[in-house]
Every structure is written in C-alpha cells, then in structure tokens.
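Minutes, methods subgroup
Present: GH (chair), OT, SY

1. OT presented the first of two proteins processed in the latest run. Sequence and structure tokens recorded below as shown on screen.
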Amino acid sequence: MLKKYGTANVQTLADRTGVSSVTIRNDLTFLAEQGMIVRTFGGAVIANQKDMVRLVSNVMNEYQKQKSSIAEEAARLVCGGMHVLIDTGSTTYQLIPYLRNLPITIVTNSLLIASQIKADTLPDLVLVGGDLSKYCMGFVGSAALSSLEQVYADILFLGAAGYSIEDNVLTCENLQEATVKQCMIRHAKKVVLLVDSSKREKKGFAAFGRMSDVDIMITDDMDEEDLDRLREMEIEVVIANEDQS
C-alpha cells in the first residue's frame, strides 16, 4: 500500500489488513528501523531514497518537545474562519493536532501535513499540488506556484532550515522549495516563523527571505542580545515553554 500510494495512516492499514492498530504500529516501527519507510504522525510514508530518510525522518525526530511547544504556542494565533497557510517543515508539521478542532481552511503544499487531515478533523483542506520534493515532502515547481498565486491567507506558518540575525537571512535546503516559500510570504497578511533554537545562525543551501519579512517568530530559547536585535527589526518574539505541552 505504501509503494502504491506513497503514504498511509495506521487506522487505514489496520482496517485493510484486519489486525490491530498496535500490530500495525509495531510493523511500521520495524520497517522504519530498516530504512524502508519514514514514520509520520499517525502513519508512514515510503522512503524511496536514502537522502529522504536523512532529510525527513531524522529531522522529524529531532527536538520533538521543543517543536511541539512551538506549534502549540503558534496555534494560539489562529481563530475560527481564518485561511491558514502552512509551509513544509518538521515544526509546522506539529501544528495539526492543535488545529484539528477549529473551523478554518488550511492551505498547504506539505504532503505530510495534508495526510493528517481526516474525516473527523474540522478544518477544510486545500492541498497545493505540483512536483513532490523528497527533501521536504512538499509540492514545488510551476504548478505549486500557480496555485499559490491564486490565494491570500490571513496567516502563514513558515519553516526554515536555518536563520541568521547577523546576516538578516532565512534559508532552506532546496532552490525550488525557496521559490515556494517566497510566494507564500507574499500571499500572507501575517508571517509567523516557527524555528527551534538549533536553527540559530545556521544557513541552509538556499536563501528565501529576510528576517525582516517575519512579523512574529516563535522559538524555544533566545538570548537577550538577539531579542533586542529582533525588536529593532520590529519582529515580535514568542518563547514557547516546553512545560505547557
């Protein structure tokens, strides 16, 4: 099923095979340990390439508590009726459990985020199509850009591989991904950057924006000097508390 569809959730696999969800989770864990699949929230995606395992699976498992706290804090910015644009990324991926009961419209190019929207989740989903990038498990390319050019969101939750206050830059790992992020920034009233503190002063391959493009930054830790510099850029900084998750 994973080879055919690329992604599947635990309950669907349990229903199709006639075994318990516990058995499915154990089997998925085994397959993930063999590098054959990548575990996601409530399911799995197929791992066709070693690079995908390194760039998706490993990153998804890093700093989970911090990312969950950041996502929980970010969800406080959302209220019913909003059009919410969600970027690809391991931190933005954590948002859906906190948004599942809100009457909103989620627009995303992330296959992993879209896979979390089920029949019993309240948000409507608009999935931006295009060419699937194995680096971010999101849709990129001309089709994705064409779709994004047609929508305007109340808020954008933006991910990044790294950020530099010193150089006023936001970066990711892929040029096509960078182009999509740039389009998202242009089409959102408010831009909220979700990054854990490990991304500080790190640079990925491709620059896609400036720190000054951001309205609100949510992270798990930051020193006073950086806080002051961001305030000078008129960027609101929110420090998420791990204890709230």
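2. SY then presented the second protein from the same run.
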Amino acid sequence: MHEQLLHDIGLSQNEAKIYEALLHAGEASVQTISLKAKVHRRNVYDSVQKLLEKGLASEVFIRGEKNYRAIHPQRLLEMIKEKESRIKQALPQMQGIYEQLEEKEEAYIYRGIEGFKNYLHLILQQKETVYFIGAKALWLDSRLKHYLPHFDKERKKLGIKFMHLFDYEVKEQKSEIMKLVGKPYKFMPKQYSSPTCVDIFGDYVVTFIGVKPGQLPEEPIQFVMKSRRLADGYRTFFQCMWDNCEDE
C-alpha cells in the first residue's frame, strides 16, 4: 500500500516491500518475511540488513530464533531530516562551484510534472518578481496540489512578487486563482487569448504551449531560455501590455 512512497524516499523496492510487511506482521522470521513480502529468501537477508543499518528495523530473539520488527514509521521523517541536514552542510560549497562557472546564455526544455517543478525551483532560485503573460492559472492543476503549498510558502518567505496578465477565460472559468496569487493582476482582451503563456523572471523566459485555464497538458513541456538581455526585453514587452490592459 505504501511501497511506492517508501521507494520514492530512498528505499529499494525490496526494502520497501519488507518494511511494509514488517509493519503488518509485527515480528517475523526471514521465512515469514519472504512469504509476506514476496521477496526471495536469499534477497531478504541483504535487504533486512540494510533496513537495520538505516534504523528502520530491529532484531528480536525469541527462543533462540532471530526475528525482525519494524521501527516506528516516525523514523522515516528523521531519515529525511538527516539527509536534508547533510545537503545543507554541503550546499554552500556546491553552490560556490556552480556559481564559479561563467554565466552563459542557453536554451533547454523541461518535460513532465517534475520538469514543471524544476521551473518553479528556478523562480525561488532567482528571487525576483515574476511577470506572467497570458497566465492560465496553471497552479490549479491537480497534480501540483501537494507541491504548491511548499512553493508558495517559500516564495512568500523570499519576498518574490507576482504580476499577472491573465487570459480573459481565466476570469470566467478559474476565478479562484485571483485569491490564491493576490494582486496585482490584469486581464488581456478576449480576442488575444491563446493556448500559450510566457513567464519572465530573473535571467529566464519560460514559454508554455498547449495549456488551458487551470490545466497543464498530460505531458507538460516548458521551453526555457536563459538570458538576462532576453528577459529584460520581455519585461519591456510585458510593461507595454500591462499599461494597455484595463484594471479588473
């Protein structure tokens, strides 16, 4: 039931299956674990040992027989915090190495929901106002509901402001987005609606295609262009549009 989640946070498939089996069994021998987890007995030994090393299982001796028991699931959160702490310690040095590289203009593509999350991370990284042209309320896509609260909390903490030029349809179909993102925002004239939108922030211009109000495509694609000169030009375009669009 939780195997995929356990796998996503760093456990191997066998470790996830065995931990899940131990949660349900309470205490179990290698033989019982093998049956309940549907993992070959010879692989159970290695995976149980790794769970012991990670602090997710413990040994129990009953009448001379070695059994195993799952550690409280709270340990999973502790594992994540430990990894986060290690990353924070290493991050300044890693950032220094990254930032020593010569800044260059480049273009690339992000794909999928994880790619969309990478785009959101760029916004937090740049720490500058974001200008949205033809905005479609894409934050409302159901696949982002678990990630967006974290993103929005971080961007507010960093003081990142939004300026939205929404497509006209958003006002009619997804008006709840206005409360979520807050002012300032305006709406483009109805005759200029399109299935594209452009976001400008820091050194980046990000273009989306095939988008609808409140909904990303099944396989989202973002065209990412990194160039301060290009972004400055798009900010000028945005200001021209903003000045010629009526207030709400």
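Chair's summary of item 2: The radius of gyration is 24 Å.
Next meeting: continue with the remaining queue.
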